């Protein structure tokens, strides 16, 4: 199995300019065994995922308990929901558009991640990058849209956008804010989950979930839902935080404790995915990752830039395999 | 801070919620009485707007992406820049200015005498004009390229000759009348299919339209009030319009700047400049500047046998020289550009300083061997003499929510180096690029974070140029013995040290942002 996943990554290396990093990260983490255990359960039932005790560095007990409370039985189509995580977002929902509030990092990162999405989608859908509205004609769903920080630029770029979030307060704020501008008032915001949309058999040209997967209960299942929402030949984009020492230092110690950018406890380091883990669970959901880029923060300019360094924040663009559904 | 106060007002006086607020930043907390009067009138303007909305009249008022207040050289240049880029040319733009020149298609006769208001455009400005397609028009009119520049001072201790060859360039700059620059930009704007509307009127008030009232009622505590998405502008002819972004290009006395509560730093030099056009018997092809005890006098070629004079002096002297008869003025000019106040710089003193500074000298440039020259004689005055005070003004911030300043509205420098408008064209170029980048990633173009990128790029460059000009001003208006020697040393250093000279030239030609740190 381990050699198989290596092969997969080598294949990816040929596809992408950033492949080198995936490969390096994989060999450096020597984590393939653990990946198998943690994520390679084909079973959709979250409570059948291996208990975290099998790997000492894995999720703390409390996390697991929460998941059981969430109860797969109680919410058969909402396996991705993690109640404790959602409560955190609900508590600070009013501050989505406060540029110096808890979501400041997302605002600061937005230009960088949108330009990644722009170039990836323009290339994939053969759209004219010199157009002011290159996404015209594309149906895009923003899964875990929060206050709409990503949905609004996508709408301005011409896309028909559906923004969904599991927290109702978020979609309310998002709708109010979008109504301020006639161009964004067409965004359809809905308090629902990816799984529910799958159930409703909705399909999109592009499915985007930025900074969400680290907050969901079952990343593998979540990816399957994203894949199911992606139309044939469509695209999936995911961004998240790496599970590395650097990400622990920057995302948790610095952002939550020192800089107070984020309320303490926003992130559960152990539930972060490494780039290779994300590539593998997407592969299992029949999405081939075509491109991965990292984000680096420049404390002098206060801006983010795309880079080859995937050790903290990274974004992946994948396409749906032709032969699936 | 401001937001919290607004919120408090809103919750304490439920019936008196402030639905809209005038544009202002935190710095304007110390509102003066005139400001608060404006605040009130703006609020009144807003409530009438609500009435309009109720009556369903909103559609009758124009809605624009950008409103440019001020259609001077910089405002029109900005509109041209927008019309020339793929991502910005689809924007809906309003230009507000009562200047009648905006309405007519001005035909400039080449036989007209040159206007005394001229600008020295730098290569960076020329390439901007070429990019937007306005340079052809300039070339059809009077303009004068120069590839040499001589700067010297009255003490006879030093001189510097700059040559375009030193930096591998064909030219150092080009002198063009302001009316030619303005007309060429206008004609290029008129030719494009850009969606622009010209309002021949003046701005009288503006107010940020905020939805805090609605939002407060639907979702208490939500912080959206900074994000009203339109500014309402009222004009002197009774028209109103809405814009997502207001660009203040309304010159040194910017009303947009005042309404937005943007504070300025500045001072007057208790010095005036006289400007006028003069005629020679031969064509002048060099830019000349001599530092006199009272301030600098500059002689710029303007094409044919004409030159432009910018002469700085005390207010008293300037009123005398403005009214003295033409022959006396011509004599005074020739005196000031030749033996007046002191001798020509001696070649012996050049080598003397050259030796003393030898430890600093890098490879010699060809122009360091060039001899001192005397500028061509003036034979006649060819325009009225205009006098204006020298001042320096800089806006502490260039941007507030949905408002941004460019050109003289953001920074006014004295015309010593003819740089004023180049800085403004630099602003226009950078702002249009920042907006284009913003559009490419779906940003709201009035968002302060986007406008701050423009500010971050332009402020250091503008401040640097202003500091440079201010330094020149200070160094050449005080007549201290020792300072004269230092000044001469600086001239010689500039004359001989090639890298430094290259830096000065590339900065003066607008190609370098950080002369001191690169
Ligand atoms: C007498 C004089 C001589 C100069 N000589 C030189 C020189 O030799 N070399 C040089 O480089 N620079 C010179 N300058 C400076 C140079 O003219 C400016 O740097 C340049 O004009 C700035 O352009 P601008 O478009 O920013 O502002 P301006 O040219 O001042 O244009 C501002 C425009 O805004 C309009 N406006 C103002 N208020 C309102 C309102 N409320 N509503 C609507 N419209 C409004 C005005 O009608 C005007 O058209 C001189 C300036 C003056 C005053
Ligand atoms: C860090 S925010 C990211 C918001 C937005 N995507 C952005 O990047 O600007 C994560 C969001 O995901 C939402 N979320 C978490 N779990 C979810 C799930 N299972 N389904 C849908 N949304 C979820 C949260 O409510 C929160 O708004």
From TrEMBL, chain A:
<feature type="region of interest" description="Disordered">
    <location>
        <begin position="39"/>
        <end position="79"/>
    </location>
</feature>
<keyword id="KW-0460">Magnesium</keyword>
<dbReference type="GO" id="GO:0006744">
    <property type="term" value="P:ubiquinone biosynthetic process"/>
</dbReference>
<feature type="binding site">
    <location>
        <position position="113"/>
    </location>
    <ligand>
        <name>S-adenosyl-L-methionine</name>
    </ligand>
</feature>
<keyword id="KW-0808">Transferase</keyword>
<keyword id="KW-0830">Ubiquinone</keyword>
<dbReference type="GO" id="GO:0046872">
    <property type="term" value="F:metal ion binding"/>
</dbReference>
<feature type="binding site">
    <location>
        <position position="144"/>
    </location>
    <ligand>
        <name>S-adenosyl-L-methionine</name>
    </ligand>
</feature>
<dbReference type="GO" id="GO:0010420">
    <property type="term" value="F:polyprenyldihydroxybenzoate methyltransferase activity"/>
</dbReference>
<keyword id="KW-0999">Mitochondrion inner membrane</keyword>
<keyword id="KW-0479">Metal-binding</keyword>
<dbReference type="InterPro" id="IPR010233">
    <property type="entry name" value="UbiG_MeTrfase"/>
</dbReference>
<comment type="similarity">
    <text>Belongs to the class I-like SAM-binding methyltransferase superfamily. UbiG/COQ3 family.</text>
</comment>
<keyword id="KW-0472">Membrane</keyword>
<keyword id="KW-0496">Mitochondrion</keyword>
<feature type="binding site">
    <location>
        <position position="215"/>
    </location>
    <ligand>
        <name>Mg(2+)</name>
    </ligand>
</feature>
<dbReference type="GO" id="GO:0031314">
    <property type="term" value="C:extrinsic component of mitochondrial inner membrane"/>
</dbReference>
<feature type="binding site">
    <location>
        <position position="165"/>
    </location>
    <ligand>
        <name>S-adenosyl-L-methionine</name>
    </ligand>
</feature>
<comment type="pathway">
    <text>Cofactor biosynthesis; ubiquinone biosynthesis.</text>
</comment>
<dbReference type="InterPro" id="IPR029063">
    <property type="entry name" value="SAM-dependent_MTases_sf"/>
</dbReference>
<feature type="compositionally biased region" description="Basic and acidic residues">
    <location>
        <begin position="60"/>
        <end position="69"/>
    </location>
</feature>
<dbReference type="GO" id="GO:0032259">
    <property type="term" value="P:methylation"/>
</dbReference>
Automatic annotation (TrEMBL), chain B:
<keyword id="KW-0274">FAD</keyword>
<dbReference type="Pfam" id="PF01494">
    <property type="entry name" value="FAD_binding_3"/>
</dbReference>
<comment type="similarity">
    <text>Belongs to the UbiH/COQ6 family.</text>
</comment>
<dbReference type="GO" id="GO:0006744">
    <property type="term" value="P:ubiquinone biosynthetic process"/>
</dbReference>
<keyword id="KW-0830">Ubiquinone</keyword>
<dbReference type="GO" id="GO:0016123">
    <property type="term" value="P:xanthophyll biosynthetic process"/>
</dbReference>
<dbReference type="InterPro" id="IPR018168">
    <property type="entry name" value="Ubi_Hdrlase_CS"/>
</dbReference>
<dbReference type="InterPro" id="IPR036188">
    <property type="entry name" value="FAD/NAD-bd_sf"/>
</dbReference>
<keyword id="KW-0560">Oxidoreductase</keyword>
<keyword id="KW-0496">Mitochondrion</keyword>
<dbReference type="InterPro" id="IPR000689">
    <property type="entry name" value="UbQ_mOase_COQ6"/>
</dbReference>
<keyword id="KW-0812">Transmembrane</keyword>
<dbReference type="GO" id="GO:0005739">
    <property type="term" value="C:mitochondrion"/>
</dbReference>
<dbReference type="GO" id="GO:0071949">
    <property type="term" value="F:FAD binding"/>
</dbReference>
<keyword id="KW-0831">Ubiquinone biosynthesis</keyword>
<dbReference type="GO" id="GO:0031314">
    <property type="term" value="C:extrinsic component of mitochondrial inner membrane"/>
</dbReference>
<dbReference type="GO" id="GO:0120538">
    <property type="term" value="F:2-methoxy-6-polyprenolphenol 4-hydroxylase activity"/>
</dbReference>
<keyword id="KW-0999">Mitochondrion inner membrane</keyword>
<dbReference type="GO" id="GO:0016712">
    <property type="term" value="F:oxidoreductase activity, acting on paired donors, with incorporation or reduction of molecular oxygen, reduced flavin or flavoprotein as one donor, and incorporation of one atom of oxygen"/>
</dbReference>
<comment type="pathway">
    <text>Cofactor biosynthesis; ubiquinone biosynthesis.</text>
</comment>
<keyword id="KW-1133">Transmembrane helix</keyword>
<dbReference type="GO" id="GO:0106364">
    <property type="term" value="F:4-hydroxy-3-all-trans-polyprenylbenzoate oxygenase activity"/>
</dbReference>
